[in-house]
Amino acid sequence: MSIRAEHEIHTRRRGRNLGIGLMLGGFVILVMALTYVKITTIDFNDLKGGAIQTQESN
Amino acid sequence: MSDVTTTPSGEYEAQLGDYFALLKPRVMQLVVFTALVGMLAAPVSVHPVVAFASILFVAVGAGASGALNMWWDADIDAIMRRTASRPIPSGRVQPSEALAIGVALSGLSVMMLGLAANLLAAGMLLFTILFYAVFYSMWLKRVTPQNIVIGGAAGAFPPVIGWIIATGSFSVEAWLMFALIFMWTPPHFWALALFMRNDYDDAKVPMLTVTHGRPSTRRHILAYTVLLVVLAIGTGFTSIGGPIYLTAAVILNALFLLGAYRIWRRDEVDSEADNFMVERKFFKLSLWYLFLHFGAILAEATLRPYGFGGWS
């Protein structure tokens, strides 16, 4: 028996597995894109300034 | 050659399309469109990637509540002709799978919307999912003939969520869009109940047609339509309205009011004679009614930066 033999379940669930794989891949790309946008659009100087002001006011 | 959708023991094995059908794709279309209009009508612009991700997670949340609704309502879905072919009553998906998908996607969508947009939008999405899956599906639907009236709020929240995604806060304009869908839902579903008449009777769902009779339902359709007409045309004079919206609203509301009046004038003998033609036409018109109202709000918002949309 070949080590590459495909089990029947792989054939039966090919569509499902492929679909879920594509969705997971899309989700990863979306999270990466969101992270990039958040990092490049948030002004961290404002956040830092805010934090310093809060500490000073205490 | 063996059928790839059946197991060796001959049982049907759910395909991706069966799981997708659990999410009520047609309802998701309406949710995506109204949430998108709510977001674009807001006076704050959203980065395209954030906008895309946010609307996607709102759609996933809506789908999750649809899966939970199908899990809970599998018994009555099996009785009603309109819903008998849904994934659970037709045996394509197991109830436990629907529950797991509904809960998992609810959590994922709320969490991701909180990260993509803001916590208020995520909170509203969670509230909407619970409102539809728990308050409407598990309680109201089988208890009161006002099920459609109060439950309609669940379908009316998406434009509010869209607005919050952009602005991070509530506003009168967002609640006007909410009210438009909220007031539209009862006439839309009562018209459906008039011509799908045996379904709700057989499933013992206390629709107005079952509890108060069909003449009363016809009166209710007309009364709610009158209130809806006032609201829809009044919205035309607010900041989300404008000449395009007002023109569309006047035409659509005149047609809708005429349809409701015709339904009110008819009795069961007239309806039986033409197989509920007027009621069916009114139901079809109601779909266009909502789509075109929100399309007009979108047109006003899109043209505003170029100096054409709105009243200014």
3D structure, described in words:
- The complex is a heterodimer of chains A (58) and B (312).
- Chain A has one domain (8-57).
- Chain A contains three helices and no strands.
- Chain A has helices at residues 8-12, 14-41, 44-57.
- Chain B has two domains: 1-169, Tetracycline Repressor, domain 2 (Orthogonal Bundle); 171-312.
- Chain B is 74% helix and 0% strand.
- Chain B is flat.
- Chains A and B meet through helix 1 and helix 2 of A and helix 3 of B.
Number of helices of chain A: 3
Taking the sheet with the most strands of chain A, its summary is: none
- Percent strand of chain B equals under 5%
Helix % of chain B is over 70%
- The geometry of chain A reads as rod-shaped
Helix-strand string of chain B:
HHHHHHHHHHHHHHH
- In CATH terms, what is the fold-level topology of the largest domain in chain B? Tetracycline Repressor, domain 2
Helix content of chain A: over 70%
H/E topology pattern of chain A: HHH
The radius of gyration over CA of chain B amounts to 20 Å
Terminal CA distance of chain B reads: 68 Å
SSE-based structural type of chain B: mainly alpha
Which class do the helix and strand fractions of chain A yield? mainly alpha
Given as residue ranges, the uncertain stretches of chain B (5+ residues, pLDDT < 50) are: none
- Average pLDDT for all residues of chain B: 93
Uncertain ranges of chain A: 50-58
User: Per CATH, which architecture of the largest domain in chain B?
Assistant: Orthogonal Bundle
The pLDDT mean of chain A sits at 77
Report the CATH superfamily of the largest domain in chain B: UbiA prenyltransferase
Strand content of chain A: under 5%
CATH class of the largest domain in chain B: Mainly Alpha
